[in-house]
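TL;DR need C-alpha cells for one chain.
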Amino acid sequence: MSFYDILREQAGSRWSELSSGVPAAAVEKAVLAEDPSPGQFAALLSAGAEAHLETMAIRAQALTLKHFGRTIQLYTPLYISNYCDNECVYCGFNVANIIDRKRLSPAEVEKEAAFLASTGLRHVLVLTGESREMSPVSYIAECVRVLRGYFSSISIEVYPLAKEEYSALIKEGVDGLTIYQEVYDEALYARLHGRGPKSDYRFRLDAPERGARAGMRSVNIGSLFGLDDWRKEVFLTGLHARYLQNRFPDVDIGAAIPRMRPHEGLFTGAVTVTDTNIVQAILALRIFLPRLSLSVSTRERSSLRDNLVPLGITRMSAGSMTCVGGHTAAGGAGAPQFEISDERSVADIMAMLKEKGYQPVLKDWMRI
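>> reply
TL;DR here they are.
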C-alpha cells in the first residue's frame, strides 16, 4: 500500500479527535505508550492534550536523550539558484513575483563553500527554486562536485526528481534529501499551487520514497505550518514519517516544523500557529516516533529555538541566509525566499548549545 492510499483510507477518520477534548486518561496513556498507535498520536495532538504539555515534555526529553544523547547536529542552507516555474502563493520565489533572479556559477559556489567551511560546518543543505531549465540536474551535480571538497554531508532541497536522477546525484556526493509536501490536503494543495510542475501532488508526495529507494542516507519531510490546520498537518507528517521508517529502516528519516514567515508576494491566507502549538507538535512527534530526527530552522526566533532544544530537537540550522550567494555577496545576489528570524552565527549557536549542556555536532558522517 502506498502512502497516498494510507492518506485516503485512514487519515480522514481522525480529524474530530484532533480538535476535540480527548479524555485526560487517554492522553496520559498515549504519553506512556511504548509504541503509540495513530489514534494515540492523534490524542497527543488534540486540543485536550494542551493541559498535559509538561508531562509530554518530560517523556519527550527522556526519549530524545535515550536515542540521540545530548547532541545537536548543525547545518546551514546554501541557495544556489532562485529561478522558479511555480506559482506557489506563499513563496517569495513565485514565478509571478518581480524579484532579482540569480544562479551561482561554480566559482561562486566555491566561494560560498569556502566561507561556510571556515565556520566549522561540514553539513550543508543545497537549495534551488523549482526550475528544470535554469537549475537542471546537471547543474546541481556540477555544484555538488565543488561542494564535496568542503563538506562531509551534502543534502539537497530541490524540485522532485525521478529515482534515476536521485541516484545520479548520490553518485556525485549527495547523501541527504529534504522535500516538504507543504500541505497534505490534496484539494487545498491544488488551490495553493495553481501553475507549474509543483502542482503535481502525487509526484511530490512520492518523492521521499523515490529518494530512499535510490539510496539516500537521510530523508527529511514536513509541511509548512500556516497553510492548513496544524494538528491535521502534523498528524499526516507523522504518519508519513512512520511509513518511511517502516519501509526503509536503514535510512535516517527526519521531519521539520517550518512556520510561515514574511516573504515577497501578497498571500493573506495564513492560518495562525502559536509557539505553544509548535511545542505540542514537537512533543507529539517525539513520543510517536522516538527515532525521528527533528529539525528547527532559523524561521523561528532565537529565544524559541533555544527553549525547544531540550524538548526533542536533534538538528538546527545556523548562520542561515535565504538569498542566493547571501554569505559572500554584499546584500545577497538574489531576493530571499523568506525572512529569517534567528540571525545568529554558527559560533553563537554553538555557544548557546554548550551553555545548555549539549554538544554541537559539526560532522557525523564521512563518505568512503
